[in-house]
Amino acid sequence: MKAGVVLAVILMAAIVMVERGQAAITCGQVDSFLAPCLAYLTGEAKPSRACCTGVEYLKDNTPTTADRQAACKCIKDAATRYRGIKLDKARQLPKECGVDIGVPITPDIDCSK
């Protein structure tokens, strides 16, 4: 009986978080999805299959506006940590992987919109 009550409380908390529009994705997840793309973003000719899979995972794991805004902020933060990222490659990454993420990847993007 107690397990049922605990499960109900957890489910209610999850519903409240979703209703409030809180992002479920973390920067750690975004970093792990896109880590295989560093070679491409710093100069390799084509993104690897692992990179493109990460871009697909990123899209699949950001279904809400709050998720996409959180991922955007994570990507912008990560871009400041890694030197040598070529902006033209970052802009082309979704297209090179055949994934429409719905927003351009640019350093001046407003993540709140």
Question: Can you characterise this structure?
Answer:
The protein is mainly α and 113 residues long. Helix content is 62%, strand content 0%. The radius of gyration is 17 Å and the shape is globular. The N and C termini lie far apart (45 Å). Mean pLDDT is 82; it is low at 1-20.
Gist?
The protein has 113 residues and is mainly alpha-helical.
Radius of gyration: 17 Å
Q: N-to-C SSE series?
A: HHHHHH
Number of helices: 6
Mean model confidence by pLDDT: 82
Percent strand equals under 5%
- What ranges have pLDDT less than 50 throughout 5 or more consecutive residues? 1-20
Structural class, judged by helices and strands?
A: mainly alpha
Number of strands: 0
Report the end-to-end length measured between terminal Cα atoms: 45 Å
Q: Sheet bearing the most strands, described? A: none
Secondary-structure map:
Layout: H1 2-19, H2 27-34, H3 38-41, H4 49-60, H5 65-81, H6 87-97
Tags for this entry?
single chain, 113 residues, mainly alpha, 0% strand, Bifun_inhib/LTP/seed_sf, lipid-binding, Plant_nsLTP
